[in-house]
Amino acid sequence: MIGILVAMALMFIIICVVLRLFS
């Protein structure tokens, strides 16, 4: 359960970084 939450958090951070790079 905790691993899933950590994975979701990491994916969210990566998506935010990618959006900043492309914006």
What's the helix-strand series? H
Number of helices: 1
Over all CA atoms, what is the radius of gyration?
10 Å
The overall pLDDT, averaged over residues, is 97
Low-pLDDT windows of residues = none
Hey, roughly how much beta strand do the residues contain? under 5%
Shape: rod-shaped
Oligomer category: single chain
Report how far apart the termini are. Answer: 33 Å
Number of strands: 0
Q: Provide the helix percentage.
A: over 70%
Largest sheet: none
Structure commentary:
With 23 residues, this protein is mainly α. The protein contains 1 helix and no strands. Keywords: Membrane, Transmembrane, Transmembrane helix.
Can you tag this structure with a few keywords?
transmembrane; mainly alpha; transmembrane helix; 23 residues; membrane
